[in-house]
Specification:
With 527 residues, the protein is mainly alpha-helical. It has 24 helices and no strands. The chain has a single domain, classed as Amino acid/polyamine transporter I (Up-down Bundle), CATH 1.20.1740.10. Bound molecules: 4-fluoro-L-phenylalanine.
Length: 527
Amino acid sequence: MPKITREHWSGKLGFVLAAAGSAIGLGNIWKFPYITGMNGGGAFVLVYLGCILLFGLPLMLCEITIGRKTLKNPYGAFKALQLKRSRTADLIGLFLMFGAVFLSGSGHYGFAALLFGAALLFVWLGFAAVGLLSLITAMLILSYYAVVGAWIVDYVYRAFTGGLHFTQVAEAAQVFGNYLDREPGRIAIELIIFMTLTAGMIIFGIRKGIERCSKILMPLLFILLIAVIIRGVTLPGAGAGIGFFLYPDFSKLSVGGVLEALGHAFYSLSLGMGITITYGSYLSKNENIFSTSLWIVALDTLAALLGGLAIFPAVFAMQLSPDAGPGLIFNVLPATFYRIPGQLGWLWAGAFFLMMTIAALTSAAALLESGVTFIMDQFKVRRVPAVIGTYIGITLLGFLTCYSTNHWRNLPGIDNFVQNVFNVRTGSWFDLLDKLTSNWILPLTGLFTVIFAGWIWGARKAGRELRRGSQGICDENIVELISGFHKDPHYMNSPSSGLTVITLWGILIRYVAPVIILFIFLQVIAK
Ligand code: PFF
């Protein structure tokens, strides 16, 4: 059997840009701005930042540490670190079975069956089930994320060929609706284009593929974002958009909004999908996990804030009102850009959709890479065949998604079937995948990951790996740091006493994060 040696990122910059590429995606550019505007603007941003620090960052540290310790894909990593059969895994299996019974009692038979499957996996594989679940989730997410990528590729083409000439949102909405309903063949071709670009990014490996592309694409993404922002904020009337986005209105902040911030922190940082474990497994042992994670989190948050500034000032200046979800990007924005005086609407729309393509592409590459790494590690397959196999599989799955929004939807019986089995109001496979993965599986896998790092592998052992390369920061005494007595020889405690950065992390992953994630989960169930 050929011996395959594991690659490494060339250094901190390469890893940070690749991981930021995975985190910065469609969620930052249209989801974050919109939910911020709806939930009290600046007030929501503050809550979101709190969630990122208290719970996103600690989970990211766990994932990178698990990857770097084991040098394996998520499944292999959990398997390697669970030394003996864990009672906790059996208990989780039991808990999931109860969940399945509860769900079937309320008519959610499809979800109940899935939960039952997950329970069996736990009893069978222990915590390795978490790795497997997150990998399956990553592949499912990619199969619909790539379809949105295909729509965006279409809009880049339309923008540069003069196909986005709308002055009214209704006109744009009609064109977008027709495109989804009547042109599955066109979407399928664009899906192949998008997936080919994604596979092209990773086929040359970690350094020559993902890292090299990220080093070009991520700066380009920020340049395009800033160009669109400058155009938007210099339009007369742009201030109202900035106000909608950022004015802190605490009266609009509800418990639901706080929980939404938690869930989004999770999704936005690409946590709970095994992606960060995979990227961490290519990180060299002397790299500082702590400071790289801080960079990734900071870039992701910056991109989300810039996303809002690229959208709302222009929308408000052109006297349009923002819409939710895909409607904002594909209906409101084309009309907004076309209305901008100076006949350069095509250029602003083109720049915007190109930037979105980059955001989607680097996130899709991370998703595909986690499947590819799994196949390479577990079946000792070389990169090229692993990429080609995964690429074909996901593209085929993507066809299902793209047909589900049109032809398939009209087949008699399908809608009813999906609705009856899963008891969800919308019938399309697309909606189902989105709901299932982001509302159900992600909170679960995230919860199990912190429990695993904090209690099963154990905070102490995990902390030992985390401190390699980041001992300086990890052993900082938080009280000295915050109070301004940092490095003062008269006040310095011994590093092991008191609350240090790493002991705080231990508390967060053992107690705070599990409780918070459980909270999100309960909220999702109660909805
Ligand atoms: N973090 C990406 C975003 O904010 O758009 C979304 C994402 C990427 C979700 C990769 C899931 C994923 F596996």
